[in-house]
């Protein structure tokens, strides 16, 4: 009978036991192949995919350890359960050491055998799911997810590959929405730390006292509300990667603390005296000009030189317009896969409009535009009518409307209207509005203040 519970290979030179056990396992809805010795089992292992191998240690033409070694040479699967009527503690230890899932003692008890099989198959399922999840992570966050054929993007790929397995600090610069976080994750996925934690901290989202606790942890009683010990992000990222986003917003006091941990990889939790030492890879990002910030006294020069080891400068989307069709198609496919919608692509006029747009929100804005077009569109392809209506307002700001004003001044009116419309549409929820516009929250607050929308 074809089983839905798994395919097993049973190996034993006792033919009576072999057939009776195989019959019992088939009654339990397993598909079972049998082999009476090592030489009969090896071609079966090589020729078919089994979910589990059960083998007696003593075989007429070899032993179960030889079969175990052969299975291990093929890779992590299939798991192997060894059986023996002469098992000792040393035999059990040796079996586990060589990679067996379990060692069962004959005569076998039905419930014990069934439980061992269930445990082995369950563990194998978890391993396969983990491999599938890792493959999904590689697809979403690996280097292949950083899309672009522009020569500057190619240079970025080269840098990432060159430094991935080093511990060198990497500073990623570029405007908001260019994909700095994605590059940081790709760097982690390519490194030998990929199986450890990737911990991201948005430095601009927290005031100094909370940011210090977030990064370094605190002990109970360190401040009001600290009712228990808290593990900081640096400790969570030990042997992994910590990504400090918006590092340019760090206060002078926090910059001093960061300088120490980046130099010595040592720190104490807030309110504590125990020194923790970590082995963390540090990746930082900023959309500010740190050279100017140093010159203006807003960023420590010694910290700047400490983080300015390997620099990756991500170009804005408006400077790599040739990448827009590829990026848009990538986002279209992902959104269709996630939602089940069927949209074949973009009209020529839609792609032309995308390449005329200035993309102040960069790649994040493009992703949001494509997502909205797919979700709200009614046709088999994305057309111009599916693109944001406010684009027209920006593109029709002509020379006559600029007059003696600067371009920045001329654009303030349409920019203010776009931001106000988005705020009203989402009930003045700044977090949602920032995501929809493809800018970070700090940039939105600054624009609202400059345009008189903060109240």
TrEMBL record:
It comes from the Bacteria. Signal peptide: none annotated. GO terms for biological process: phosphorelay signal transduction system; regulation of DNA-templated transcription. The keyword DNA-binding applies. Residues 7-121 form the Response regulatory domain. This is Transcriptional regulatory protein ZraR. The lineage of its organism: Bacteria, Pseudomonadati, Planctomycetota, Planctomycetia, Pirellulales. PANTHER family: SIGMA FACTOR, TRANSCRIPTIONAL REGULATORY PROTEIN. The modification 4-aspartylphosphate is found at residue 56. Residues 146-375 form the Sigma-54 factor interaction domain. Keywords: Activator, ATP-binding, DNA-binding, Nucleotide-binding, Phosphoprotein, Transcription, Transcription regulation. One of its GO terms (molecular function) is sequence-specific DNA binding. InterPro entries: AAA+_ATPase, AAA_lid_NorR, CheY-like_superfamily, Homeodomain-like_sf, HTH_Fis, P-loop_NTPase, Sig_transdc_resp-reg_receiver, Sigma_54_int. PROSITE patterns: RESPONSE_REGULATORY (PS50110), SIGMA54_INTERACT_1 (PS00675), SIGMA54_INTERACT_3 (PS00688), SIGMA54_INTERACT_4 (PS50045).
């Amino acid at each position: 009978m074809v089983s839905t519970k798994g395919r097993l290979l049973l190996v034993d030179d006792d033919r009576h036991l072999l057939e009776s056990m195989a019959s019992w396992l088939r009654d339990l809805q397993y598909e079972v192949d049998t082999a009476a010795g090592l030489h009969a089992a090896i071609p079966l292992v090589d020729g078919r995919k089994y979910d589990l191998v059960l083998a007696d240690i003593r075989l007429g033409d070899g032993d179960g350890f030889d079969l175990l070694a052969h299975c291990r040479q093929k890779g992590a699967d299939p798991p192997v359960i060894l059986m023996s009527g002469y098992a000792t503690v040393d035999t059990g230890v040796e079996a586990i050491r060589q990679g067996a899932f379990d060692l069962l003692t004959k005569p076998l008890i039905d419930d014990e055998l069934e439980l061992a099989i269930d445990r082995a198959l369950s563990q194998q399922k978890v391993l396969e799911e983990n491999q599938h999840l890792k493959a999904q992570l590689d697809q979403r966050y690996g280097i292949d997810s950083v899309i672009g054929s522009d020569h500057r993007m190619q240079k970025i790929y080269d840098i990432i590959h060159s430094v991935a397995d080093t511990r060198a600090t990497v500073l990623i610069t570029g405007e908001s929405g260019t994909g700095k976080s994605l590059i940081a994750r790709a760097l982690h996925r390519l490194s030998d730390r990929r199986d450890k934690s990737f911990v991201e901290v948005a430095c601009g989202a927290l005031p100094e006292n909370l940011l210090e606790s977030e990064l370094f942890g605190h002990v109970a009683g360190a401040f009001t509300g600290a009712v228990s010990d808290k593990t900081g992000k640096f400790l969570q990222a030990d042997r992994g990667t910590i990504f400090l986003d918006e590092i340019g917003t760090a206060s002078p006091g926090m910059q001093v603390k960061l300088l120490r941990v980046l130099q010595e990889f040592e720190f104490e939790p807030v309110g504590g005296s125990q020194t923790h030492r970590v082995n963390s890879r540090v990746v930082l990002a900023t959309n500010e000009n740190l050279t100017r910030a140093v010159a203006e006294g807003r960023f420590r020069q010694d910290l700047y030189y400490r983080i300015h080891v390997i620099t990756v400068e991500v170009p804005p989307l408006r400077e790599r317009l040739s990448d827009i069709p590829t990026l848009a198609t990538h986002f279209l496919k992902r959104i269709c896969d996630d939602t089940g919608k069927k949209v074949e692509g973009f009209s020529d006029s839609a792609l032309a409009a995308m390449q005329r747009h200035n993309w102040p929100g960069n790649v994040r804005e493009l992703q949001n535009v494509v997502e909205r077009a797919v979700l709200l569109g009614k046709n088999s392809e994305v057309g111009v009518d599916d693109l944001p209506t406010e684009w027209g307002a920006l593109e029709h700001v002509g020379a006559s409307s600029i007059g003696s004003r600067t371009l920045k001044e001329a654009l303030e009116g349409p920019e203010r209207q776009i931001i106000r419309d988005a705020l009203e549409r989402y009930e003045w929820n700044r977090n949602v509005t920032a995501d929809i516009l493809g800018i970070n929250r700090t940039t939105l607050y600054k624009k609202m203040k400059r345009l008189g929308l903060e109240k």
